[in-house]
Amino acid sequence: MQLFSFFSSSTAFRVRIALALKGVSYEYRAVNLRAGEQHQQAFLDRNPSGGVPVLVDGDVSLGQSLAILDYLDSRYPEPRLTPADPILRARVLELVNVIACDIHPVNNLRVQLYLKNILGVTEEQKNIWYRHWVEQGFDIVECLLARQDDAPYCFGNQPTLADCCLVPQVWSAARAGCDIAAYPRIDRIYRHCMAQPAFIQAAPEQQADAPQQT
Amino acid sequence: MQLFSFFSSSTAFRVRIALALKGVSYEYRAVNLRAGEQHQQAFLDRNPSGGVPVLVDGDVSLGQSLAILDYLDSRYPEPRLTPADPILRARVLELVNVIACDIHPVNNLRVQLYLKNILGVTEEQKNIWYRHWVEQGFDIVECLLARQDDAPYCFGNQPTLADCCLVPQVWSAARAGCDIAAYPRIDRIYRHCMAQPAFIQAAPEQQADAPQQT
């Protein structure tokens, strides 16, 4: 199994966490997004979306982190990252999609480049945009977490897809200067996760393509 | 069962298609997004995200269209909208997420309002932005569809979640002036779907809150 990844991509980070939790070994294939390697034809043939992550499993080459996470959960069911209980499963996917649809897409690299290069917004305006969507999204995540009993992970004592998605989003937001302490439940879960071996192993700083100081 | 919906919301349209395909009857609860009804506290208590769709099934109140679609597919398994075969399932979810993560979020109402009200972009710039993400996304969808044999639906002879997501995105894009004929596979599948009773029943124009001419 191969994972095409970039150390600081939060969607690749999601998949690395799932692979680490499941103890699946894989070949790490770095795609330097800053150097534009995702736009090379050989990579586009693999993934027309031109982004990471891409999972290659035998003949299957699969893009889109949420599709990859679902695939891994059926291919390697232990530990299961989507609960079997239908209502809990729905709650997990609700939180996952707040992050994957409402926060991440409006702040990713291609949108930031459009804002800067096509609309000519200033660096300050771009940073305000970024924080706006993170803050609006994290307010919602806090509300959803408040519906659950406090627990080490988003939904109880075991990690789920919600933690696989939340942790990379918090990592990116903190790096962009967002005040994570303003979201006590998110902050607590993030700190707990980032003390666990699988999350540490998956972290951007631990990847082969990470600069020595990030 | 109740569905909080707005006639022209493409994410609510996704869920209406699934409900119609499965023959599930439900109470239609209109939330007028143009009048800001999604920001009222009673609605936010139901869905902290402050958007539609929201599905209410007994004690469960669930936001996020993809979480709702997954829930409906386990609650009402016939007809199944996510294939049982793991690789085909992954392909369906890959296409679903191109639409749900890469196209829709950057063009939805809240982003359009931010562009206009906070960044002060012109109507023309906003339209170019909209078309840019649709065109980039539809190019990718065409590539993914080209990997399959031609068929009435995105993946074969039966509708899947991919059709539930593609059709509303095409409906919105066509309404915004995008040239759908430039994407022959998408165009063909859209026309086929929109001739089927479940898709017709779910269409914006058929909803109780649709103006007589939309």
Helix and strand arrangement:
Two copies of one chain form a homodimer.
Chain A: E1 2-5, H1 10-22, E2 27-30, H2 41-46, E3 54-57, E4 60-63, H3 65-75, H4 86-107, H5 109-117, H6 123-146, H7 161-175, H8 184-193, H9 197-202
Parallel strand pairs in A: 1-2
Antiparallel strand pairs in A: 1-3, 3-4
Helix pairs in contact in A: 1-3, 1-7, 4-6, 4-7, 7-8
Q: What's the architecture of the largest domain in chain A in CATH terms?
A: Up-down Bundle
> N- to C-terminal separation of chain A?
27 Å
Strand content of chain A: 5-15%
Numbering strands along the chain, what is their spatial order in the largest sheet of chain A? 2-1-3-4
Count every helix of chain A, treating DSSP H or I runs of 4 or more residues as helices: 9
Oligomeric category: homodimer
Q: Helical proportion of chain A? A: 40-55%
Q: How many structurally independent domains of chain A? A: 2
CATH class group of the largest domain in chain A: Mainly Alpha
Described by strand count, sense and barrel closure, the largest sheet of chain A is:
4 strands, mixed
Q: How many β-strands of chain A, per DSSP?
A: 4
